[in-house]
């Protein structure tokens, strides 16, 4: 119910983040998870945030994958 309430607003501060979710390398990734393999979800609006363990913080979704994994 609260999720629908918050979704009515254009601006969400994303203060209610869910736990970090890490996908296995072999898992087919999509969306935010495709960037670093780890992401968290805003419990209020459902937006996904890619998380970079190397930088220990959330990174922007627009960022390209610079590292080439052999
Ligand atoms: Zn949000």
Can you tell me about this structure?
With 70 residues, the protein is an alpha+beta fold. The protein has a domain at 2-6 and 19-58. The protein is built from two helices and four strands. The protein has helices spanning 2-7, 33-36, and strands at 21-22, 38-41, 48-52, 57-58. Strands 1-2-3-4 form a four-stranded antiparallel β-sheet. A hairpin with a 4-residue loop joins strand 3 and strand 4. The longest helix has 6 residues, at 2-7. The radius of gyration is 13 Å and the shape is globular. Zinc ion binds next to loops.
List keywords for this structure.
70 residues; alpha+beta; four-stranded antiparallel sheet; globular; binds zinc ion
> Which of globular, elongated, flat, extended, rod-shaped describes the shape?
globular
Instruction: Write down the overall mean pLDDT.
Output: 80
| Helical content band | 10-25%
* Number of helical segments with 4 or more residues: 2
Q: Main sheet, how many strands, which sense, barrel?
A: 4 strands, antiparallel
Q: In sequence order, what are the helices and strands, one letter per element?
A: HEHEEE
Q: Oligomer, anyone?
A: single chain
- Class from secondary-structure proportions: alpha+beta
E-strand count: 4
Please indicate the percent range of residues in DSSP E strands (runs of 2 or more). 15-25%
Radius of gyration: 13 Å
Low-confidence blocks of residues: none
Q: Walk across the major sheet and give the strand order.
A: 1-2-3-4
Hetero ligands: zinc ion
- Give the terminus-to-terminus CA distance: 45 Å
